[in-house]
Amino acid sequence: MNVQNFFPAAMQDNGEFADKRTTLLMKRLLIGASLAVLFSIGVVSMIMLRVGLDYGYLIFASMVSYLLPLYIAWRYLRTPRERRQVEKARKSVFISMLCIVAGWSAIGMLILPLLDGDTRLIAVSMFVVVIYAHSVPFSTFPRMGMALMAVNLLPLSLELSLLGEYEVVAFGMCGFVLMAMEVGSFVWLYRADMRSLVKYRPAQTSEEPDMSVAGFRRRLLHRLHSTSTPSVMMQAVAAFFLVITLRVPEHEGMLWSWFLGYLSLQVLRTAGFVSYLNDPSRRRIRDWRLMFAAGVVANQLAWYSLLLLFHDIMSGFSLGVVSGMFIVIAVLSTVGLTSDRLLLYINSAMCLVPPVLILFAGEEVWSMVSLGMLASLSLLIVVENIHRSTIHSIRGRVLQKLTEYRAGEMQELNAELTEAQERLTEVNASLESQIEERTQELNHQATHDMLTGLGNRYYFSRKVSDSLQGMRNSDSGFAVYLLDLDRFKEINDGLGHLAGDEVLKAIASRISDTCGSTRVCARWGGDEFVILEPRQVCEGAVEAFATTLVEVLRAPIELESGPVSLGASVGIAICPEHGTTAEQLLEHADIAVYRAKSRKTGVSVYDDQWGHEATERLQLVQALNHAIDHDEIDVALQPFVSVEDGSLTGFEALARWRDPLQDINVSPGVFIPLAEETGLMPALGRNILRKACYALMEAAGGTELRVAVNISVMQLQQGDFVAEVKDILRETGLSASRLEIELTESVFAANVERIREELCRLRDLGIRVSIDDFGTGYSSISYLRDFPLDTLKIDRSFVAGLRDGGESLFSSIVSLAHGLRLSVIVEGVENRGELEKVLDLGGEEIQGYYFARPIDASELQEWLKNHEKKPFNLRRRYLSVGS
Q: Are residues 184 and 256 in the same domain?
């Protein structure tokens, strides 16, 4: 038998019903501790009467310690349930009982050596009751109970075994065996308590009882193992009292040895019960039944061995007592066998053998008494009726469970049908409400933007129409605002559409909060929003509100990739001054938006004189598109001059365009932003880059002069930009080291990771990279440090600021660039005074009108003949161009 089966899973507390089991423990402890006090008084009183104890009254006084666990239990039961500290109370009462038990064990080890054999036997017998009174109340927490029993029983058993008296050595060892057998008792008690508690808990799952033959056999086998523990325990008690009855000094050692062997047999039987209850699937039904039958037969043979070994000392009264005890044992052994007919018959037949043998042993009075008892036994144990009654009882319980299961299924089915009927009624009752809600939802979707939650075009147009109708009735005007986001396309293209959606939602929320409840706001489409102010307004008031709105929208928006900032332009049309229909008002507000964007004012109120500007803009876009397609964009180059020796180091390429329709030169400040707005910038930039490379190769192909070309963010965000640059360099024959790419600080507002990757690829080719117009955009020291840059160009505004004491700021920028290992180009130097200050403050190269205005590509070669061998003299008092 595996030792671990003595400590089954049933003794592992999982915390279920902890509060109820603790309450049960406290109630039982009140009874158990009281019994322990009474029997302890009896034990001590008996010892004092028989042998006397000098310190007996001190032992009596120590019984006061029982008041502590009694008080804890009484107080716990009186405390309201919601205020009980379950675990703390349980630990407290266990520790107090453990201390009491340890004290009794110490006292017992002191007293036992002083007692004679009879007194010791009586004291031990009475103290066993005290032991059970200590530990049995803790059966709801079996490991605690076993711990208390161990502290009680093991020291006592060890003391008896080591007294040095041969007769009681086996008696002392019985305590160790009894300890092992009590594992089964505590498992049986714990299972009984848990079954009683589960009855009061609603069933969480329900299974149909197994009504098959195999299922019924398993149920009978389970009954055999689950109900036999009480029979084993009662037979052990009967064997104990039988040994006491037959006890004589010359056979005392043998009697206790037989009792030790009998207890050992019961330990094995109990281990089998516990092993089955712990895992019935470990063996087949037949194997479990054979093991159980072997235990029953071995139990009866143990009783036969008592008759064979000690028949000589059985005479007179003791023989009658033994016969009566065997009858009791026959009844007790039948208790757990009623569910198995064969075992019941075998056990009953074996129980009849000892009394019959005693009957035929002589004609004494006590033998006749045994015969009468045998007749009584024959009448009482009607094994067949008992078996049939048990089978019928088990079948009745199974049928009852089956009936309850089917009734539960019917109740569930009825409940489901009732619930289905109620749901159907609710569905029918709420159908009209759902249709109405759905209609409202569809109306909302039809009039609102799904992304931002604001109104849509249809909603806004309807509101404008309502305001127009109200104006006709009351002559009250109103204003229409059209808001267009600046640089939203850069965010959408650089960070992705999901980031663009988050930006739109944040912008919509700010617009809604700023407008409040007096204005109507809606999303017109893309990155455009419209606002209606349906009340009498003046131009100053609407401009002030629009300015406030623009300032609110400029605040950074936090995204997962980091904060982004973008501005907005607002165009305003006022009714009736700027139109009396929704189409007119929105068209004029759109014209005002374009005006605000082109002039970078942020806010613009429509003027009737602007109508022709929109037409001109459309014509200009068409002309620019034609010019790009037909290679009509030219370049002019402005030189870079070295501060060190005044020599030429390169040129910056600047775009030039003459509109053939109007026969005028169009400023780059006009057509470059127009190209960016209309998506023409990639094609225009590619055209300018190619012409700049050709112009340098034609004019200075054999030199090391470089050309710097401005590149827009839109070009860098194209996936094939680096390939385009390679193709142009291959086509023109210009080496990569002579090409410099100039970027404005707006590159830092785009997808910086993508831009950084593209610039690194350009740098790997040998192309230089510079930041143009530094200090006028989105400059950041961290970007300057992390981006692959070679040059920093200081904007003209800082040079002009030198006249007003801007030397410190200029010097700081130069120091910053040098600290980042960047060379410095100062652009916009136009006169001698500015040049002298720039030379004093630092920088590697200078660019500006002082040296030369932008030179047409066709004139560059002639200009170089006059200047490439004649460096600019920068150190004379009166500076001039030439040698």
A: no
